[in-house]
Structures are given as C-alpha cells and as structure tokens.
C-alpha cells in the first residue's frame, strides 16, 4: 500500500485538482480513492491494471460527487479539427503552474478529463481510454480538441494577465453544435 | 497513413507512447519526419506539451495527504455532504420558525407578506452558469425543433416532469433538451432560438420544492445580469424556470 501511495498519490491529486479546481476536494478525492482501494482493491485480479483502476475510481468518484447522470445516450464527438491554433512566441515562458491549472479547469469537462491524464504523462493513450472507459478514438479526439481549447484559453489568459485576473472563456455553448 | 491521420495520432501521443511506440505511433512519426510542415508543427506541439506537463508536475499534494491515506482515513467529502444536508435542514427549520414567529408578531394586524428570499435561486443561477460554461459537454439528450416534442420527451423520460413554457418561448424553434441532476433534483434544460438576435436562450426547470424562499407564483421574473449572462426566473405551477442568455430576454419571459 505504501509503495502504491508513493507511486501514484501525487498524480492522482493533480488529476483530481484539474477535475475539481479545489485543493480540498482534490485531496479528499485522492484519499477516498485509496480508501476504496484498501476495501475493494483485492477484487482486481490483474495487478498491471492498478494504476488504471485508481484513475478510473477517482474519475467515478468525481462524477458521483457532481451527481451527474447520463440516462440518455450522448451524441458522440466528430473527428477532431485538423489543425490547432498556433502557439504565440513567448507564450510558454509566461505560464506558471497556477495559470496552467486554472486555465485547464476552464476546458470543457469532456475534453479536460483525458487531457489531464495526457499531461500527467504516465499513461499511453490506450491506457487513458481504459481508465476512462472510452473508445480509443474518442480519447484521441478529445485530447486533440482539449489541446485546441487550452491553447485558445491560454492565449486569452496571457493577453489579459496584467492584473493576474483570468477572464471567463468566450463560451457560445450551443451554436457550434447545431449546424 | 496521410498527414491528417498522423497529426491526429501525434496529438494524442503521451511520453509513454513515445517511449514505447506502437505501430500506429511509429508510422505517424515517420510521416512527420517526411513532411516538413507537420514536422515543425509537431515540434512546436511537443514544446508546448512539455511546458504544460512540467507546470502540472510542479504542483505538489498537501504535505499531510500521504499520511492521511496511509492512516486509512476516509475522505471527509461524503461526511461533509451529509453534515451539510443536516445543517441545511436545521437551518431551514430555524429560519422558518424564527421568521414565521417574527412575521406573525410584527404583522399580526396586517396581511403577512410573501417571504422573498433569493438565496437558493442565486445558488441555482450560479450553478447553472457553471454548468453552461464548464460542465456541460454540449450534447443533448434529444434534438428537436419544436418545444412541445421536447416537453413530451422529458415527461416520458422522467415519470412526471410536466414543463409549461410560456407561449413566447414555446412557439420558437428549439435546439434540444438535456436532463441532469443538481442537488438531488432532476433539472431539465431546453435550448430555444429566439428570432433575430442570434443568441440562445437556455431554459432550466427545477421543482419548486428544491428552492426555498419561493418566488412570487406565476410571474414576476427577477431579472439579473451575471457576467455576459442575462437571466430571469419565474414560477409556473409546481416548477421554477430560469432563462439564461447572452441576448435580451425582454418579451420572451413572463413579464413582471
């Protein structure tokens, strides 16, 4: 257990922080995930899947916390856009951890979840798909779209960062989906 | 594999994928090497990804988290939620008794005014803004251009949710509807397209029992601006409705 905590609790916490946007909630989600591992982890027969199990469980706990239900089938996403917005020169130097995490938290949840796992860097994209219980193609598409959103939001944030106030995203939730 | 396919794969490639590439990743890398434009784009992408990943990796968990986990403690979240429910009930009862008593004392010779508290409505409004801006995946449970079809579908899906949109909204073209949970309640969302102004009106509906501090029944919307969002709430029957839009709502929601 101690080794498992040392190996993954930092990444799980960062994943939870990106999901929830709250340090307190992130710590609790991480703690709860390990509690569930202690009580139910013995049911997992394939020990190579422990990491996926932990991330899957944390993700499920987050969704349960938000009390989100999806009783209807979802419209799946189209293929990702072919090209992403360009990165502006100097953009990367100006980014600190707080800005990155705050901006990540403004990416739409569907894209943010796989994007967080992408940036934690430990998992292959196929493993991310397993952890999130999604088709591989969907995960790839969402990572790609998530990156596009993140870049736009980061550019916007950095342009207005003089006062360190991050602007709200320019959300037009419906129209792009309706054509 | 063409350039677009290679770009699609490379965008999703994590460090783990690059350290142990499968056949698809190897082929995508080969295409990137052969295509200077994609190669340059991929290099910029990697540079950006490395910075973002490094910034995230720089965030450390609380110092006591490891010890709390190893101690086998359960997280406080579920308990907090239960405590909040109990406290909310207790506070609600206290407010009801105290407020009722004071209202009776001060107004015993005059008609008792309707208690008008927007506390719950404000919370509902803030959460719905968050839903629109952050949490919604922009998918509908059902897409239909006629409000009546959406209302009917929601009633069938929820075993009794009867929505009554005002004629000013129900006669307009609709995009679709979505249902989700908030504070243990079924929330319905219907998206309407007003004529002319190019905006979308998001109409949320929640059971009136979910919000204490009732609105004045049947009308009197309380309009408000929150960031870019204009909103108005009203009650019809046993449900409260909250319309939100970046465009004007005048003439669309019940007049005060």
Question: Can you offer a commentary on this structure?
Answer:
- The complex is a heterodimer of chains A (179) and B (256).
- Chain A is mainly α.
- Chain A folds into 2 domains: 2-65, Rna Polymerase Sigma Factor, Chain: A (Orthogonal Bundle), CATH 1.10.1740; 97-172, Orthogonal Bundle (Arc Repressor Mutant, subunit A), CATH 1.10.10.
- Chain A is built from 8 helices and no strands.
- In chain A, helix 1 crosses helix 2 (23-40) and helix 5 (109-120) crosses helix 7 (136-159).
- Chain B is an alpha+beta fold and 256 residues long.
- Chain B has 3 domains: 3-57, no CATH class; 71-113; 117-245, no CATH class.
- Helix content of chain B is 46%, strand content 17%.
- Chain B has a 7-stranded antiparallel sheet with strand order 1-2-3-4-7-6-5, sandwiched between helices.
- Mean pLDDT of chain B is 76; it is low at 78-89, 95-118 and 216-220.
- Chains A and B meet through helix 1, helix 2, helix 4, helix 5 and helix 6 of A and helix 1, helix 2, helix 4, helix 5 and helix 7 of B.
List the helices and strands and how they pair.
The complex is a heterodimer of chains A (179) and B (256).
Chain A lengths: L1 H19 L2 H18 L9 H16 L31 H8 L4 H12 L4 H8 L3 H24 L15 H4 L1
Helix pairs in contact in A: 1-2, 1-3, 1-5, 2-3, 3-6, 4-7, 5-6, 5-7, 6-7
Chain B lengths: L2 H10 L2 H5 L3 H12 L1 H22 L7 H6 L6 H30 L12 H17 L6 E2 L3 H12 L8 H4 L3 E9 L2 E8 L8 E7 L16 E3 L2 E8 L2 E7 L11
Antiparallel strand pairs in B: 1-2, 2-3, 3-4, 4-7, 5-6, 6-7
Helix pairs in contact in B: 1-3, 3-4
